[in-house]
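Hi R.,

As promised, here are both runs. First protein below:
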Amino acid sequence: MKFEHFAINVPDAAAHAQWYVANLGFKIVRQMTVAPFTHFLADETGRVVVELYSNPKATIPDYKALHPLNFHLAVVAADARADRARLEHSGAPLVLEAPQADGSLLIRLRDPWNVPLQLCQRTTLMPMPQ
């Protein structure tokens, strides 16, 4: 089996998707313009897809109350501090900047809807399938 997507129920899927496109460089690969306004977003490789939707049939989690160690979206950052500044300016508040013993830098933020977001500037990148 291979990973297809990870889904998140959010209050305003269309606005949320547009923020990820504008600020994370994600691309909308499929969307619905009627309820539940599902948006499938791919990263620059097209290898990872996240689904954002606004479905009242399920409770939207209280993302602000959710600890980032329980759940977060993590993205690779070549310059995590520069990305942090840019994202903070775009409405993503800082949670924690965590330099790692190996020289990596992990920065936790929350997007404007409080979904935990992590910037990963690693000294050794995660292995990617060929």
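And here is the second one, sequence first, then its structure tokens:
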Amino acid sequence: MKKIFLLFFVLGSSITAFSQYDTTAPYLKTKMLPAFSLLNLDSVAFTQTVLKENKNTIIMLFNPECEHCQKQLQLLLSIPEVAQSTELVLSSIETLEKNRIFYNKFHLENYPFVHLGKDFRYIFGAYFQPTTIPVLAFYNKRNGFVLLNQGNATKKTILKALKN
């Protein structure tokens, strides 16, 4: 009897030991705009409460020194629909100084819909689990998830995501 009990115990333990855990990225589980806290260029934390209501949101994970990221931002800034209907959150894990240089290079002070911040807690990295940059996460006016684009997105992709 003890041997049978021991056999079932070992089998039960081995099944548990080899079971897989859920590797689904959080953005696919919640399908909602994540709560976040980023440091602006003045080292002041800002959250999703700075975003205007009834607007789409694009979260862009980027590196200020990445040429692909710079081209992606230029494309986003050149699309009138982005300026009219979207809040753009630029999130970098780089230093505030590198972010400041990037901000000044693109004169982001002229774009009130753009919010640049340092992801000092790596919230978006854990949430989106990117494999490359830039990453664009699109959310609709109700903060519902629309699309995650890893790598540069085309104008067509951006406009389609904003219409959803």
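A quick note on the second one: Helices lie at 2-18, 26-30, 67-78, 80-85, 96-105, 123-128, 155-163. Let me know what you think.

Best,
J.
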